[in-house]
Design a protein that fits this description.
26 strands; mainly beta; nine-stranded antiparallel sheet
Length: 440
């Protein structure tokens, strides 16, 4: 939420403001005022009450949704790279949906080489979608702001907030006016022969003076940049055999001799821009405000990701295939597609009791996915004659392959109650709350 306040500037303040003008956002002036006479005050809810960001007693950054839209940022990793004190290991979309790679002030439990393997340990940076503790890397669409809290936040955000907390605050339905927007983005990525296409739309519909409905949807279709150079040709789920006559035949082909099956090489193919991305996203909200003291909102958020391959550059395990130049290429012998689905439903109720505001947040989420992983290089370290475990276990095998179909499932029910004091003139602010998170 943004509000605009007027300040009378002293000469020194005006001079300093002139020096910083090139790096500071300028608020829109009211009628009869110049932009230099107006400073923007950003209100945040990181302390569970609405406060000016200048009054928050710890280090916090807030990025407004219109700034995210203006920079065409749709991904968590892309946004976090621009925030001081925050770093992120960007492993591409294949892993970004379920591996929390956020690092604040260097505190981390991920050594950076885990690939797409989720850790059993709780991440050191907690992430919230509105009031729900969930890491699902939803697209940054129709968002009000992102709050980044640095340093331990265990009192309000639990044990997984040792390094800090990131909160994604979504736009809310507005009963005062109809609003709609649509956008189309097109681009290309260096080293890719394909295209990137993004589509998004939003509509806000007042249902009455006290109710409103808001719907936002988005689609991202990006072609990849990594070429898989040494893919096995497959039949019946297994690498084919290059017969003595030069044909590519299934291992089940009766015309093949036992010697050909045991000792002949495979046939290879390749796929350019294999790590393509297809994302679908929808969020729907229904808000009801029967009076000034009660605010009820139901939300449903869904995202589906399909990724064609891993965004990584590796020589792979088998060197008999096509030439490998080490630039935007993978030597893996198998494609590594993945998919995931995230759904979040929540009910938020705020009731102003006068002396305090009672908030109830009830949410349920399902987050699951799976991916095909090429593990051949774990067994075959070299095909040039050096000893390796695969050669010891399976001597003479000319078509080594090892793959894993790895998946994950995470379902939970979350209930939180908070009672937050309202008296801003008091010397003491207090918050009382209870949280229950049940993994199903």
């Amino acid at each position: 939420m943004n509000t605009t306040k007027n300040f009378t500037k002293k000469p020194l303040v005006a001079a300093i403001g002139g020096v910083l003008a090139s790096t500071s956002p300028v608020a829109i002036a009211q009628s009869g005022e110049t932009a230099s006479d107006v400073l923007e005050e950003i209100l945040v809810t990181a302390s569970r009450r609405e406060q000016s960001i200048q009054d928050i007693p710890y280090n916090i950054s807030a990025v407004q949704g219109e700034d995210i839209d203006a920079q065409n940022i749709v991904d968590n990793a892309e946004l976090m790279r621009s925030i001081a004190g925050v770093s992120v290991i960007d492993r591409g979309y294949r892993n970004a949906g379920h591996v929390n790679s956020l690092i604040i002030r260097g505190i981390n439990v991920d050594n950076g080489v885990n690939g797409d393997i989720p850790l059993s340990a709780a991440a050191t940076v907690a992430t919230y979608v509105d009031n729900t503790p969930l890491f699902a890397n939803f697209l940054l669409k129709d968002i009000q702001r992102v709050e980044v809290l640095r340093g331990p936040q265990g009192t309000l955000y639990g044990s997984s907030a040792l390094g800090g907390t990131v909160r994604y605050i979504m736009n809310r339905p507005d009963a005062s006016q109809f609003d709609a927007s649509a956008g189309l983005n097109y681009g290309q990525t260096e080293h890719s022969d394909g295209n990137n296409l993004g589509i998004d739309a939003m509509v806000n519909i007042p249902l009455s003076d006290t109710a409103a409905f808001r719907l936002s949807a988005a689609s991202v279709e990006n072609d990849g940049v990594v070429d898989y150079k040494n893919l096995y040709q497959l039949q019946d789920g297994k690498p084919v055999v290059l017969s003595d006559s030069g044909q590519c035949l299934s291992v089940n082909d009766p015309s093949l001799s036992n010697e050909e099956i045991a000792f002949n090489e495979s046939c290879y193919t390749s796929k350019e821009d294999a790590d393509d991305v297809d994302i679908k996203y929808v969020r729907a909200s229904l808000r009801f405000q029967p009076n000034d003291d009660l605010d009820i909102q139901f939300n449903y958020q869904w995202q589906e990701d399909e990724v064609g391959g891993r965004r990584t550059i590796t020589k792979g395990a088998d060197y008999y295939g096509n030439a490998y130049n080490g630039k935007d290429e993978s030597g893996s012998t198998m494609l590594e597609p993945s998919e995931r689905d995230a759904q979040l439903a929540s009910l938020d109720v705020e009731w102003d009791l006068g002396f305090a505001t009672l908030t109830s947040s009830t949410s349920s989420y399902e987050h699951n996915g799976n991916g095909w992983r090429d593990n051949t290089s774990l067994w075959v370290t070299d095909r040039g004659g050096f000893a390796n475990w695969f050669a010891i276990l399976y001597p003479g095998n000319p078509r080594p392959v090892a793959h894993v179909d790895a998946g994950f499932e995470d379902e939970a029910f979350v209930q939180e109650f908070r009672l937050v004091s309202n008296d801003s003139d008091s010397d003491f602010d207090w918050t009382v709350g209870a949280l229950s998170l049940i993994h199903i």
